[in-house]
Amino acid sequence: MKLRFHGNLNVLMPGIRALLQELQITEDEDGLPVFVEESTGELEVGLEQGKAYIRYGQRHQFFRGLGLLVQHGCSGEAFQIREKQQFDTIGPMFDLSRNAVLTLGGFKLLLNKMALMGLNTVMLYLEDTYEISGEPYFGYMRGRYSQAELKEIDDYADQFGIEAFPSIQTLAHLEEFLKWEPVKHYKDTKGALLVGGEKTDQLVEKMIEAASAPFRSRKIHIGMDEAEELGRGKYLDQNGYVSRFEIMTTHLEKVLDIARGRGLKPMMWSDMFLKLASTGGDEYYDEHTQIPEEMARRIPKDVDMVYWDYVHTEREEYENLIAKHRPLGCNLVFAGAVWVFNTFGVNYGLSLNASDIALQVCKKEGIREVYATMWGDDGMESNPFIALLGLQLYAEHAYSEEKPTWDRLAERVKFCTGIEADAFLQLKYLDETPGAEPDNRKQSNPSKFLLYQDVLLGLFDKQIEGLEMSAHYAQVEQGIRSRRVKDAKLDYLFDVPEKLCGVLKLKSEIGIALKRAYDVKDLATLRRIATDELPVIAEAVKELRAVHRTQWLSMYKPFGWEVIDIRYGGVVNRLDTASLRLLDYVEGRIDQIEELEQERLLYSTVNRFNNKGAGWCSYYYRMASPNVFFHVLNPF
């Protein structure tokens, strides 16, 4: 398609040129004339009598409009689209701290997709993955961004009218920095800062300065979530008991003073205040929680509160929780999620339903700022690119008063990403398996624990006993393969899910078969498993690792891949040991296999037998073994 732009394009041309290749269009004197002009706020795109127009209120809207023009104008038929943006600010939060740090190229590709969607902000979650002068252990060997890299991301985002800004931690969630012995003077507990001291105050000041300096935006997210351990380590030894609320509010005021002095507009996660107000002191979603007047009075009002909610699927639940935030007296921001947490896939069943309801309620409640978080808990085997269908839902909600139709969402995501919506949806079946609740509402993650669990120990075998996991993964493998389009730029994203299904159709139930054969002394079956089946599984794991490595290095910095490499190595090595142990038993060199003598127990009480799904495990090291991976004499 050829276009010829008319109008004041000086501020738009850098972004237009960045998207030319993405859209496969060229500027040409003989191209379709496109008249570009600013409007009062609504986005208008159309084609009539051989001429096109884009009228936009804000710069980011132009790039959505450009995408809509190319999407609908290729046929040459007349059309008119008029949209009104429903949120002032909407975009993703990319987790850049849980093992996987996007390369500049990977980040820019995501920004291209965001520009076509019409999103206007991106939050960079940076625990310790940014450099701080004078703090060499901060982000050491973690792929931290330099100041120049963050500035390049900001510059690239700005050409589309996308506001980039940092989300850091100024209180807890700093385990990866505080683990280093040379910085122990900053540590209260394993992950929380020792607040109240001059050294920590100086560190926080350096954090805020380093994180905010590369960005045009004056926004900064200061974190402060999930700080349950606050004041219970060295702080307690030095100061005696002080309530967590007292410690938090005192520290918060210091952090805000630093932010105010730099002209920054801070926001923070709201959970600790609701937890501290709850009956048990640790429940974020407690329906009985009421913010006490004294608490509300002491909380500064010039910090935005970010209400995060990733799980609810009923309007009333969001309405009630929003109402519980109102007494805080702060501007309220909402953060939903596209569930790439702790899985190889995307929990689209939960993500799409929860986000759809949440965004409808946010419109009704007048919440003007919304984010889609994509956490990378426990190593980030997944990635934000396979979450683009979920992000597209946020974008379509942003430009529609009503709930966007599935057809509209599907058409838009195909245009913006080159991938069919139904292909994205196949990824939910990595975890939405037999035994899962409808739409995987209980966040089962068998794609991860069935890969990493040991075949001799079978920690999850009782959990999945009687479920046809092997047949399920064979079906999903075929479902993914049949929907792939080899010439699509992002088709490679399906290499890992397809190969993973190839592993799990073989491995998911092998431990059950192995234990069954051992219990009845079926030596022929045990030999076959040892010599035929386990080596085939090992080769499938190696193939999975190879495509995963290629994918990782195409979008992430190399730091962090060693963790996934080690995990794959553990799977392969344990399969080898299992083969050895089985043959030793079958051939009479040992009298028993102690691991298989053990009774199989349920991994947890959260399982399909009480309608809690097929199972969930948050940590690799608990999936791989019940034994000690590490021992911490002093966790604080």
Automatic annotation (TrEMBL):
Residues 141-277 form the Glycoside hydrolase family 20 catalytic domain. The keyword Ribosomal protein does not apply. GO terms for molecular function: beta-N-acetylhexosaminidase activity. Keywords: Hydrolase. Transmembrane segments: none annotated. It comes from Paenibacillus sp. SYP-B3998. Pfam families: Glyco_H_20C_C (PF18088), Glyco_hydro_20 (PF00728). It comes from the Bacteria. Residues 422-610 form the Glycoside Hydrolase 20C C-terminal domain. One of its GO terms (biological process) is carbohydrate metabolic process. This is Beta-N-acetylhexosaminidase. Belongs to the glycosyl hydrolase 20 family. PANTHER family: BCDNA.GH04120.
